[in-house]
């Protein structure tokens, strides 16, 4: 039988509690906050990670890890404008942005002039498609 001092027991208890809370907060978090930018017009006509042809006039977005086909609500924190987008492309893992949106979406979110906005991204629904990693 292994015995612990009360100090070791308390540390193990709080470490386990911290781990459980951390896991729960990550698994139930359907909203993230960060910066958004929008695609260059030079991307028009190219294939996205989902195989769709990119069109800057549609309401689509790129994200690092969300399943392709996921529907998200993006809110510009500065002006409260919102738009619902379909994730159909991948952001590079090194990107500092949480999401890249089309020019049409950037116009609805009112950040074309600034080029970047602080946003929240809320998952509305996901698809059953497998995630394509690039």
* Number of domain units: 1
**Assembly state:** single chain
Helix content range: 10-25%
CATH structural class: Mainly Beta
Shape field? elongated
Strand residue percentage? 25-35%
Strand line-up of the largest beta sheet: 1-5-2-4-3-6
- What is the helix tally? 2
Q: Could you explain how this protein is built, in words?
A:
With 134 residues, this protein is α/β, with parallel strands linked by helices. It has two helices and six strands. The chain has helices spanning 6-27, 103-108, and strands spanning 31-38, 60-63, 71-76, 82-90, 99-101, 116-125. It has a six-stranded mixed beta barrel with strand order 1-5-2-4-3-6. The longest helix is centred in the first third of the chain and has 22 residues, at 6-27.
Layout: helices, strands, pairs:
Blueprint: H1 6-27, E1 31-38, E2 60-63, E3 71-76, E4 82-90, E5 99-101, H2 103-108, E6 116-125
Parallel strand pairs: 1-5, 2-4
Antiparallel strand pairs: 1-6, 2-5, 3-4, 3-6
Question: What's a quick, concise take on this entry?
Answer:
With 134 residues, this protein is α/β, with parallel strands linked by helices. It contains two helices and six strands. The chain has a six-stranded mixed barrel.
């Amino acid at each position: 039988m292994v015995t612990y001092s009360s100090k070791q027991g308390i540390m193990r208890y709080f470490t386990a509690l911290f781990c459980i809370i951390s896991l729960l907060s990550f698994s139930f978090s359907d909203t993230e906050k960060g910066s958004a930018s929008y695609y260059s017009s030079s991307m028009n006509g190219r294939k996205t990670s989902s195989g769709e042809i990119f069109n800057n006039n549609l309401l689509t977005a790129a994200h690092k890890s969300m399943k392709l086909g996921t529907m998200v609500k993006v809110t510009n924190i500065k002006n409260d404008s919102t738009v619902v987008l379909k994730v159909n492309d991948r952001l590079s893992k090194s990107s500092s942005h949480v999401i890249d949106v089309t020019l049409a979406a950037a116009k609805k979110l009112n950040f074309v002039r600034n080029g970047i906005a602080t946003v929240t991204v809320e998952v509305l629904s996901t698809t059953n498609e497998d995630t394509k990693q690039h």
